Amino acid sequence: MIKSFREVIAKAKNEETRTVAVAVAQDKPVLEAIRDAKANDIADAILVGDADEINSIALKMEMDLSEFEIVNEPNPKKAALKAVELVSTGKADMVMKGLIDTASFLRAVLNKEVGLRTGKLMSHIAVFEVKEYDRLLFVTDAAFNMYPDLKAKIDIVNNGVSVAHAVGIDVPKVAPVCAVEVVNPNMPPTLDAAILSKMSERGQIKGCIVDGPLALDNALSEEAAKHKGVTGPVAGKADIFLMPNIEAGNIMYKSISYTAKPKSGAILVGTAAPVVLTSRADSHETKMHSIALAALVSNQLLGKKSKEKVLLSI
Fold first, then answer.
1. N or C: which end of the chain has fewer CB atoms below 10 A?
2. Which CATH class is domain 5-118+271-312?
3. Is there a contact between 297 and 43 (Cβ–Cβ < 8 Å)?
4. What is the pTM of this model?
5. Every domain of the chain and the residues it spans
6. Are 249 and 243 in contact (CB under 8 A)?
7. For residue range 140-191, what is the model confidence (pLDDT) as tens digits?
8. Closest CA to 270 of 108, 85, 123, 94
9. Alpha helices in the chain (DSSP H)
10. Under CATH, what is the fold of the domain 123-260?
11. Separation between Cα atoms, residue 30 and residue 25, nearest integer Å
């Protein structure tokens, strides 16, 4: 099982190289991430934005832009729309947020004419490599869905599982995280957790094991689970942490980011193509890791489409 971003990068390097369209690319950490992704054979790139600014930043970085296509569009909103259009028309395989606010970027992603809507729920998944743990930690949803109901949580689990599969985790363990590890009728997230667990047990949620409710300590630590007498296939071994709402998800995301000094990456899935949705404050390493995750998901999506075409032709 893949346990580090070094292994994620190696896996992406061994798969077919994909192309990322960058929306508003005139940003030093973004260009550093693109440079490193290219150097690691993870992805090629089409840089959409103010060409003069892109060239100026690259010159200061001593970055050779001759390997990349540049599409000059100084207007940030138009640049975002163009980057998304490159993906929807098949000229690129994934899209990345550059120096543009998230709301404007997502409006382009959701554009009715050239956007990446599929009719499925979109969700954000963050992946962390923390030194103290022997596995990657997948946290969802910390940025997109605010107060998901049971139906939305099923979709969020499926989206998270698809990313885990793309990374190389065949049967990820999913913990619906709650404040307690028992079902309490006065705490709706525990009821959702119990239903999700039963659905998983009956094969209604496939490709993973869901078991909960689990408090965070019992999901993370086998020792904590043992002390509390919490048993089950996911207790202390969770790969995917399904958060009850955006507050809990966002707090967990930022707590890990600022206290554990992890390596991390994050993408938006449930779209026609993966979306690299990182913070403008994220390091170029985090952005490069996110591109690697998106490349793996892209290869998985395109592989499924190829199989579907073969089946239809039979």
1. C
2. alpha beta
3. no
4. 0.94
5. 5-118+271-312, 123-260
6. yes
7. 999 999 999 999 999 999 999 999 999 999 999 999 999 999 999 999 999 9
8. 123
9. 5-14, 28-39, 51-61, 76-88, 102-109, 150-167, 188-201, 216-220, 222-228, 246-259, 284-313
10. Isopropylmalate Dehydrogenase (3.40.718)
11. 7
